[in-house]
Amino acid sequence: MPRDIPIGNGNVLIAFDKAYQLREFYYPHVGEENHTKGEPFRLGVWVNNAFSWIPHGWQIRMDYLDDSLATNVELINDALKLRIVALDLVDFHEDLYVKKLIVENLADEDREVRLFLSHDFHIYNNEFGNTAAYRPEAGGIHHYKGERHFLINVFANKKYGIDHFATGNKEFNNNVGTWRDAEDGLLSGNPIAQGSVDSVIAIHLRLKAEEKETIYYWICAGRNWNEVSNLNSQVTKRKPETFIRRTVDYWKLWANKEDLHDGLLPIKIKRLYQRSLLICRSQINNCGSIIAANDSDVIQFNRDTYSYLWPRDASLVAYALDLAGHFELSRNFFAFSAKIIEKDGYFLHKYTPSGSLASSWHPWQKDKKPQLPIQEDETALVIWSLWNHYKMYRDIEFIRPLYKPLIKNAADFMMNYRDTKTGLPLPSYDLWEERQGILTFTVSAVYGGLMAAAHFTEAFGETDLAQEYREGASRMRQAMDKYLYLEKEERFARMINFRKDGSLDIDATVDASLYGIFAFGAYAPDDVRVTNTMEQVYDTLWCRTEVGGLARYENDQYYRVNNDGPGNPWFVTTLWLAQYYIASAKTQDELQKALEIMHWVEQHALLSGVLAEQVNPNTNEPLSVSPLTWSHGTYIAVVREYLNKYREIERYHGAAQKNGNAEINNER
Description:
Elements: E1 3-8, E2 13-17, E3 22-29, E4 32-34, E5 43-47, E6 50-53, E7 59-64, E8 71-77, E9 82-90, E10 96-105, E11 111-119, E12 130-135, E13 140-145, E14 148-156, E15 159-160, E16 164-169, E17 192-195, E18 197-207, E19 212-222, H1 225-238, H2 240-255, H3 267-282, H4 299-302, H5 311-323, H6 327-340, E20 365-366, E21 369-370, H7 376-393, H8 396-399, H9 403-416, E22 428-429, E23 436-439, H10 440-459, H11 463-484, E24 485-486, E25 491-492, E26 495-498, E27 504-507, H12 516-519, H13 528-541, H14 571-584, H15 592-604, E28 614-615, E29 622-623, H16 629-667
């Protein structure tokens, strides 16, 4: 089940499923230590001896407040004659989750309404050794284990503190969970439980006919009792509405930091752009790691998650954030990268949010010979993205400490990790993590990385070294012409490998990643080889269904739905097509195709603006993880590239017209 309306502050990340059940609670790093283990925190309602857990019998509408990482959720139950409007957010500064509930009695009679909120904590991502206890000095429920503490409290009926609660055991000796204790409308009041535990609280309201009542609920996160107790005291002293108001205001300022030139963008595209910025921010740690996705349901597919930093994905997201003016986040990522790069100048497969080496399926040995289990494009794109950052911001004092350990280290590795005969990179794993060889995408990325390193070394006065890097990139580009371009097909191959006898094993599959040939500077976007390649990418990979969109490559099996199409449409790959249309456009009319793709993305997002990795080509149902940070980052990049190109064309034609007028005047 995809995750929707994620909220966070770079230390805490919370996300809900489509049933408005809280399913992810990460702290103190986004993507590391999911303290729910993907199990739901439930919201239930009792009215007149009738009980209902959401979503059963409820109409649910999930969205955000505009320009903010605050949810705007509407819940309606016609049978119970209730309407609930919910706002959820994580304070931008404190590790505090706040929920505001406005409960409306739609009946024409006075009634008692009881709300039940359950907490199925699996602290440190497991159910062992947890404690749940009522703490009378705070009037709240305290869940804790080791250095992870969570204190739950409420403001209702004009007072602070929890009056009705229960703690108990779950997932042991046939105990389903204490949340079942709520279904008769009453809670046992059991004050403590240890082991595999959960808790549930109740808020009793007396509502007159058609009356509304507002309540507040919050969870303080910290490393010990004093931290959560002190934070709880701040909330009660300053009032929860203060934290809501200041956080909503903060995100409005953050999302509107840079001028979007509103007149050039349709409102819906602008709205999704700002949503994408905010959703990206929710997936980024304050320590600098940019996490691919945080959707624990994917564990059912391969017993692992996407809650890691892939240097490639993160580099492309950092590039987008730089285009959007949020250079502070990209700086944090580059500084983080300098800390985790291997001593020999390369990045491994992926890393945990805190910077440790993550799980991998790339082997260190193949055919009984040692190898580097890398995707070399990940190393190259960090340097490519960093140069683009520097071009925009010229922050030489930031670059200086990264020059030797990151830039030169990675560039020297890329120079050394080449076939001496051809000048091409040695085989590595592809960006889809499925095959090994010499990939057109990887070679294009390494070309871009070496050219970026040449620009840096020239700027730092090392002209001889800059020339070496340029020559390495130039030889690589020549080898692309010779080995990777397919004259007969008039496009580039996806991948090649050299057999032992020196002959070529060519993988001619049409792959959306071929966009890399222009994206990182290896070829001009109007080069006929690029044009032919991208036309064939569209013709071969566009899904011929009502949904549309571009698949990754021919006969893609990952989460495959249709047997008669190329595969499922991905947002990232579809947006790469837009990047090509932008890069190759010479008139504003030629930008229209890119605008159409931006509209396509907006139309196929969830109501909240969340973009999954891919969608069902028949139903548009989100598939795989949701949200995918890379999807949102690419949308941000496309919007910014579109605006930049639009203004570039405008300036060019304006200058041309001015020069033409000047020539006419001179003739006169």
